């Protein structure tokens, strides 16, 4: 059977002593760098890219893949432990993950993330091996109208991220959209909402925004409350999952994997959407949606699995077509070019050892990540017992270094400080930062796809409904909107009747 | 990580060493002894784009060889943002001692016309030599009707209402090439901008847009894999890696020539003997068979020997600035 031959070739490449070593080194380095606040996969890979230049192409790509998973997992670790998401997908993990940590269940949250990721990674690897070329063709069917519809759906779903008031969540989304508008208009080059600040030409930096809104504001808030400060440290317990925990996460992990595998294939934001799509789904089908935002284990398991499955399947367009689906894949393509390999549709046939070796190494990388991280969980959790007067300054210092090193720009550090204060004010007003961040990420894409679709259709808005995929997605968005608004409308009516 | 560590170490070193270096620098300037002592510490080459892009690739290949020639580490640092002008601006303001360099592409010549508020001038740099002219290709979605480049020109003229042209954003190479193509054929097409070449290529392969012009680095794989239709190259001569493609010049577009040429720059005021030494090390890199073979993988080749001097680079830069000014002004697009 061809598939077995191919996988056999892949594993023979990935399991060679040399490649196992690079896979492990990549996963380890990725975890260590990624665990620093603010350093998500993109920054970590950009930083570590040069060390792979001296390696043979397959080893280099295997190591980079290892760095990618490692950094992603490292990013989730900081999101859970100290509420510092380094990239958009771990924003969702921070919501319930950090609440779990506060309740002393940091170990459980981290183990859930690791095991969920491993399961998702395994499934996605086989999906990739079986269906990569047809899936890539499917992704090509997604044009600007389809992406626009997908973003609309994403935006509607992001309301469910808030555990409190729907109105406040909507306000936060709109504020996020507004912040996302800042920067140069890609269609005309005209600067918008930049207030003559040159550094804003490329808009606000996501990492600076996220770390300010989540991390810094959390620190400020903790400072005002003497009693809460020792909360996390006092309650560290149980590092492993109980039987009940396993039961609770199986469903979310499977659903997250399916969602993530599908959305990850879509270039341009698909993988990013997967983690919070998974969160929305879990919250919607949960019998006790009130627990979400207060440390629900499903809120960690679903998104983390989706995130990892998406990370895996986002390799599909890159490996089969040579088209980067996100900045991380663009870096991988850069690495390939430096290695003297021209990325393109011919890589599968011309370099089967590379193609299948990388696919096999994804699974090996995920396995190593579990091996590496389950023992490390104890260490990470113990970090939380560091006294706050030592921990806070250290976190702030690392945040500054992390934010600075993304673009080598001091402006981003000031941005982070500013959003730290804004984030604190919002927390005081009971407004949650997660919907804001998603609005910030989705907003520019929404606009870009809308304008691109209109340009190509020459201003005819009917493209959104005449193209079937786009029509279905928009219909789903409409249904989701009704589902989201219905309870609050009903509640409003009940309250009206009371009077 | 090692590179980062070295870079961090260098930054610290630079900070500590700044004061004595200035003093020593002044002393040496009077003695005119630069070239004998240069370089005595690592050199930073700023690439004004993200790591992993085509320009970064060129820089890293050249830097590796120059490190061997100069006997000091040549470090590539990526300072992206604002279409390459942020990194360039940083080098324009750097100490002119040859330890901070810029490796930039054609954008160095188009920025003065694209940016009305550019915080530096092209004359704020010493030219240290051209590196490589990366060719571009005119490609179309699979199933695009025209068979030859002549057909394409007739087709776009007859269907200018219908044809869409994709590019990687204002000021990008694909944007420049498209502007020149529209000017040469006299057909303004609907331009669809993207955030970079990747997403644009995705939509071209998926048939969402019709035409695109992009560098061989990005297109060769797609052309050879049969995922896009290729019509012509934008260089004066045919491109060895794509022998079947005619040039646009030979296809009736007079004087049509665009390459993504790359050059090395030092801040203005860098001593001439230091620039000469850098130029010489660059020349050794371009003669390095390993560099040449990697360039070939990118679909390009090292700059011809008679075009490698700092003087040629200076004149070429001036000519390119003059060439693009009217094209950009006629299109009325600005990046700020």
From TrEMBL, chain A:
Keywords: Membrane, Transmembrane, Transmembrane helix
Transmembrane segments: 20-39, 45-69, 109-132, 147-179, 262-281, 321-342, 354-374, 386-405, 470-489
Annotated ranges, domain DUF112: 20-438
Protein known as: DUF112 domain-containing protein
Species lineage: Bacteria, Pseudomonadati, Pseudomonadota, Alphaproteobacteria, Hyphomicrobiales
TrEMBL record, chain B:
Keyword annotations from UniProtKB, A to Z: Signal
Keyword Ligase: no
Coiled-coil regions, chain positions: none
Signal peptide bounds: 1-35
Family designation: Belongs to the UPF0065 (bug) family.
Name of the protein in question: Tripartite tricarboxylate transporter substrate binding protein BugD
């Amino acid at each position: 059977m061809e598939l077995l031959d191919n996988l056999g070739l892949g594993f023979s490449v990935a399991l060679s002593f040399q490649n196992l070593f690079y896979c492990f080194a990549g996963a380890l380095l990725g975890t260590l760098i990624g665990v620093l606040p603010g350093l998500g996969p993109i920054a970590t890979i950009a930083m570590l890219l040069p060390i792979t230049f001296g390696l043979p192409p397959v080893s280099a790509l295997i190591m980079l893949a290892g760095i990618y998973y490692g950094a992603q997992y490292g990013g989730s670790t900081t999101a859970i432990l100290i509420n510092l998401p380094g990239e958009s997908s771990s924003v969702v993990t921070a919501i319930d993950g950090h609440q779990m940590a506060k309740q002393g269940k940091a170990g459980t949250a981290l183990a859930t993330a690791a095991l969920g990721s491993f399961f998702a990674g395994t499934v996605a690897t086989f999906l990739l091996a079986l269906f990569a070329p047809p899936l890539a063709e499917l992704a090509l069917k997604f044009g600007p109208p389809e992406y626009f519809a997908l973003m609309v759906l994403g935006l509607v779903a992001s309301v469910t991220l808030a555990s409190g008031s729907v109105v406040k969540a909507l306000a936060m989304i709109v504020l996020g959209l507004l912040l996302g508008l800042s920067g140069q208009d890609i269609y005309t080059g005209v600067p918008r909402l930049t207030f003559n600040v040159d550094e804003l030409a490329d808009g606000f930096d996501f990492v600076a925004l996220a770390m300010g809104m989540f991390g810094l504001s959390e620190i400020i808030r903790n400072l005002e409350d003497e009693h809460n400060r020792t909360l996390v440290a006092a309650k560290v317990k149980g590092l492993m999952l109980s039987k009940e925990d396993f039961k609770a996460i199986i469903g979310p992990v499977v659903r997250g994997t399916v969602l993530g595998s599908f959305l990850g294939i879509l270039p341009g934001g698909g993988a990013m959407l997967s983690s919070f799509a998974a969160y929305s789904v879990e919250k919607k089908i949960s019998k006790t949606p009130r627990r979400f935002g207060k440390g629900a284990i499903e809120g960690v398991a679903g998104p983390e699995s989706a995130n990892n499955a998406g990370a895996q399947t986002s390799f599909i367009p890159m490996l089969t077509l040579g088209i980067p689906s996100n900045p991380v894949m663009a870096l991988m393509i850069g690495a390939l070019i430096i290695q003297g390999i021209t990325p393109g549709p011919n890589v599968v046939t011309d370099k089967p050892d590379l193609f299948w070796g990388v696919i096999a190494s994804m699974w090996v990388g995920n396995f190593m990540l579990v091996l590496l991280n389950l023992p490390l969980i104890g260490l990470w959790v113990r970090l939380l017992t560091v006294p706050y007067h030592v921990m806070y300054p250290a976190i702030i210092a690392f945040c500054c270094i992390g934010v600075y090193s993304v673009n080598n720009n001091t402006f981003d550090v000031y941005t982070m400080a500013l959003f730290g204060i804004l984030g604190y004010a919002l927390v005081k007003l009971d407004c949650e930062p997660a919907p804001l961040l998603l609005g910030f990420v989705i907003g520019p894409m929404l606009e870009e796809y809308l304008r691109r679709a209109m340009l190509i259709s020459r201003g005819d808005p009917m493209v959104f409904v005449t193209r079937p995929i786009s029509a279905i997605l928009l219909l789903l968005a409409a249904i989701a909107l009704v589902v989201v608004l219905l309870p609050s409308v009903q509640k409003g009516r009940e309250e009206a009747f009371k009077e | 990580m090692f590179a980062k560590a070295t870079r961090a170490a260098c930054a610290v070193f630079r900070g500590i060493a700044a004061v004595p270096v200035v003093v020593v620098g002044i002393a040496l300037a009077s003695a005119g002894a630069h070239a004998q002592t240069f370089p005595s510490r690592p050199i930073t080459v700023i690439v004004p784009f993200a790591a992993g892009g085509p320009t970064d690739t060129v820089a890293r290949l050249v830097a590796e060889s120059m490190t061997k020639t100069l006997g000091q580490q040549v470090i590539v640092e990526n300072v992206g943002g604002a279409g390459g002008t942020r990194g360039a601006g940083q080098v324009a303001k750097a100490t002119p001692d040859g330890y901070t360099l810029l490796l930039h592409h054609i954008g160095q010549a188009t920025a003065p016309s694209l940016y009305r508020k550019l915080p530096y001038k092209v004359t704020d740099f010493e030219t240290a030599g051209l590196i490589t002219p990366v060719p571009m290709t005119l490609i179309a979605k699979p199933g695009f009707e025209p068979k030859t480049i002549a057909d394409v020109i007739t087709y776009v003229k007859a269907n200018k209402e219908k044809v869409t042209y994709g590019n990687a954003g204002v000021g990008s190479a694909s944007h420049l090439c498209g502007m020149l193509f529209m000017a040469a054929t006299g057909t303004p097409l609907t331009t669809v901008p993207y955030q970079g070449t990747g997403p644009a290529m995705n939509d071209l392969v998926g048939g969402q847009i019709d035409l695109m012009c992009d560098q061989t680095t990005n297109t060769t794989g797609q052309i050879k894999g049969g995922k896009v239709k290729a019509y012509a190259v934008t260089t004066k001569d045919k491109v060895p890696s794509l022998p079947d493609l005619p040039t646009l010049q030979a296809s009736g577009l007079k004087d049509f020539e665009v390459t993504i040429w790359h050059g090395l720059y030092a801040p203005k005021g860098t001593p001439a003997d230091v620039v000469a030494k850098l130029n010489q090390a660059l020349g050794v890199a371009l003669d390095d068979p390993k560099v040449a073979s990697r360039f070939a993988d990118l679909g390009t080749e090292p700059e011809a020997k008679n075009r490698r001097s700092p003087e040629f680079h200076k004149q070429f830069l001036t000519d390119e600035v003059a060439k693009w000014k009217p094209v950009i002004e006629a299109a009325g697009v600005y990046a700020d």
